[in-house]
Design brief:
By secondary structure, this protein is mainly beta. The chain is about 15% helix and about 50% strand. It has helices spanning about 1-10, 125-135; strands at about 25, 35-40, 40-50, 60-70, 75-80, 85-90, 90-100, 105-110, 115-120, 140-150, 150-160. It has a 5-stranded antiparallel beta sheet. The longest helix has 12 residues, at about 125-135. The protein is elongated. The chain starts with a helix and ends in a 5-residue tail after the last strand. The relative contact order is 0.15.
């Protein structure tokens, strides 16, 4: 009974609001540069991998260097090559921008469900300025959102050239 309770506690953090899994287990040695991996509970894009040779008393180790896809911070982790690590499900999706309110929240139209997505904030910095400029010019805009581990971030904006 005790091992079952521990197993439930470990897997309880792996469910999103819809009951879908936020990450999946994969072998550390199968992760490639440019892939995604959970490091210290954060979704990271792998920037560098160093693999040591197996020694007399141990297995090969993989040293990962990754960049948090939401904060941009560098994170490092080491794992045995044969061990399982968690890799996040990362979804990149494009939405047409309906409008942006005064407080900086975007209203994006999900063409698959027909619903408005209204909980994403205009990004800071150059990307946010570019989005505001394009909105002020009255252009039709496509916003690219990156989703992982229950977080969302605007990663790109572009003019919709297919607009009528």
């Amino acid at each position: 009974k005790q091992w079952y309770q521990r197993r439930v506690a470990i897997t309880a953090g792996n469910e999103a609001d819809s009951g879908a899994s936020k990450f999946y287990p994969t072998q550390a040695s199968s992760i490639k540069k440019g892939g995604y991996m959970l490091m210290k509970g954060r979704a990271c894009k792998i920037e560098n991998i160093n693999t040591s040779k197996p020694g007399k008393h141990g297995s090969a180790k993989c040293a990962f260097t990754g960049i948090d896809i939401f904060t941009g911070k560098k994170i490092e982790a080491v794992s045995p090559g044969h061990a399982n690590v968690d890799a996040p499900y990362v979804i990149r999706k494009e939405y047409p921008l309906s409008y942006m309110d005064e407080s900086g929240f975007l209203s994006l139209f999900d063409e698959e469900t027909g619903e408005l997505v209204e909980d994403i904030r205009c990004p800071e910095g150059d990307l946010g300025e570019r989005l505001k400029t394009m909105t002020d010019e009255g252009k039709m805009i496509i916003v690219t959102i990156l989703k992982a581990m229950g977080e969302e971030k605007v990663i790109d904006v572009k003019e919709d050239t297919k607009a009528d």
